[in-house]
Design a protein that fits this description.
By secondary structure, the protein is an alpha+beta fold. The protein has three domains: 202 residues, no CATH class; 137 residues, Arc Repressor Mutant, subunit A (Orthogonal Bundle); 76 residues, Arc Repressor Mutant, subunit A, CATH 1.10.10. 48% of the residues lie in helices and 8% in strands. It has 20 helices and ten strands. The strands form four sheets. A four-stranded mixed β-sheet has the order 5-4-7-8, covered by helices on one side. It has a two-stranded antiparallel sheet with strand order 1-6. A hairpin with a 2-residue loop joins β4 and β5. α1 crosses α13 and α18 crosses α19. The chain is globular, with a radius of gyration of 27 Å. About 11% of the residues have low confidence.
């Protein structure tokens, strides 16, 4: 006979109310996605209608005689980091764009064929539901060259609170994606990209082991084609070294480069930042106002009807109110997060990239009083128009580099210093990564040579030998 036993198992699960799920979903939508979602909702819900230009946005429900409808409204309970009791006018006049500077048309390259290619592979890859969600988050964090901009903690934060995962789970999925087509995609730097591509080659491939060693520890020398130093550092004979270098040269250092990731899609900024009386003022784009109201005809019908019709309209009325409240919350959250970013990065708006301060999602989340995932959703694919140009909100978050006095400086500021040094370098003898690191150290910025190489590649700048050849071609 089979043996039966009783076991107790304790597990942690997160249950989200439907209203909160809707609020989270709306927060992460872009302007165009939000417009499409609202259009679909209006077509499916007779209690909602869009206000035509010039019409009042109020419905008869706001008048005293509509008070009996309160019996149809259930109290919504939101237990996350949202304060629904403080919700007031969702689009106050003070947040309207004043048109102090022209609104440019900027190409939106947030989507592309590389992303579609990877998502297609994920759909066919037998991923579990949670692994598929992690994989999608990683894919959406890739830049145009196929590199992963966000770190593991950023990926975890973007999935919470509806999906709580460990760093090891994210890393496991990341390693699976890196071996998709194109191999090496989602790498954190060029060294990792080359190592991933080498790892899938047969073990009998000539020069493979030495090539992996070069990619791991001497990628800067490989980029500079410094054969003498490579021989000295590795102790390899010239023939084996040349075989390994030829193997590396045959790989793709930018796996996403062969995809056309740009589309002629133009965006309107979600946020406007302008200078007014010695202060930086943040305002929402008018496109954040969906101009929705409750339909007067169906409101009156709900008062008159009973039975199944009334039950149906009652449900649609509750859904409409949830949507209006969620849209109101979306705007408030977006405005609060952006105001906090502007306050923390005021030196950038005053002086430019070299004054950018290091900042992470947690810094803003603590100041605003929300979860890190809320900040991640509010800043993903949302754009800010400033007198200095248009920027994605995530642009203002970056890692830091130490200075000799114990303070930290933003990675974006370090990149600006590197750009300035390269622009002023002598064409006859371009600066090597080590020389750039030494010059930065003289200004108090401590950065390793590999860090300089990583930032230089992110700026699209070639190595010193590549720049020297480019200068010669221009001179000839």
């Amino acid at each position: 006979m089979p043996e039966y036993s009783l076991q107790l198992k304790l597990s942690q699960k997160l249950a989200l109310a439907p209203q909160l799920q809707q609020a989270i979903r709306l927060l992460q939508l872009t302007r165009l996605e939000l417009r499409e979602y609202i259009q679909e909702t209006v077509e499916a819900n007779p209690l909602l209608e869009q206000v035509e230009p010039g019409e009042s946005g109020q419905s008869s429900e706001s008048e005293p005689e509509s008070q009996p409808l309160d019996e149809y409204q259930e109290e919504a309970s939101f237990s996350d980091d949202y304060d629904w009791e403080s919700v007031s006018d969702p689009w106050p006049e003070s947040t309207a764009y004043t048109g102090d500077f022209p609104e440019p048309q900027i190409v939106d390259d947030s989507t592309g064929s590389l992303r579609e290619h990877l998502l297609w592979q994920i759909n066919l890859g037998h991923f579990s539901a949670s692994d598929a969600a992690i994989a999608a988050a990683i894919v959406y964090a890739l830049d145009e060259d196929g590199f992963l901009d966000d770190d593991i903690e950023d990926i975890r934060a973007s999935l919470a609170p509806d999906l709580l995962v460990d760093a090891d789970e994210v890393l496991a999925v990341l390693h699976r994606i890196q071996r998709m087509e194109p191999v090496g995609v989602a790498s954190r730097d060029t060294s990792e990209c080359i190592r991933v591509q080498l790892s899938v080659l047969p073990g009998s491939t000539p020069g493979r082991d030495l090539a992996r060693r070069l990619a791991r520890s001497h990628i800067d020398l490989v980029a500079d084609s410094d054969i003498a130093r490579l021989r000295k550092e590795t102790g390899a004979d010239p023939e084996n070294l040349e075989t390994a270098l030829e193997l590396i040269r045959g790989l793709e250092p930018r796996p996403g480069a062969r995809f056309d990731n740009r589309k002629d899609e133009y965006l309107v900024p979600d946020i406007y930042v302008r200078r007014h009386e010695d202060q930086w003022v943040v305002s929402l784009s008018p496109d954040n106002d969906p101009r929705l109201r409750l339909n007067d005809f169906y409101i009156s019908l709900l008062r008159q009807q009973g039975g199944k019709d009334a039950e149906y309209l009652k449900g649609r009325l509750q859904e409409a109110r949830w949507l209006l409240s969620s849209l109101e919350l979306r705007n408030q959250t977006l405005l609060k997060v952006t105001q906090c970013i502007v306050e923390q990065q005021e030196p950038f708006f005053e002086q430019g990239e070299m004054a950018m301060k290091p900042m992470i999602l947690k810094d803003v989340a603590d100041l605003v009083g929300v979860h890190e995932s809320t900040v991640s959703r509010a800043t993903t694919r949302k754009y800010m128009l400033t007198p200095r140009g248009i920027y994605e909100l995530k642009y203002f978050f970056s890692s830091h580099v130490k200075t000799d006095d114990g303070r930290t400086i933003s990675a974006i500021a370090v990149k600006a210093h590197i750009q300035m040094l390269v622009e002023k370098e002598p064409h006859a003898s371009p600066l090597s990564d080590q020389e750039i690191a030494d010059l930065l150290r003289e200004t108090g910025i401590i950065a390793a040579r590999r860090t300089i190489a990583k930032y230089r590649e992110a700026l699209g700048l070639g190595s010193s030998s590549e720049r020297r050849r480019a200068y010669r071609r221009l001179a000839s």
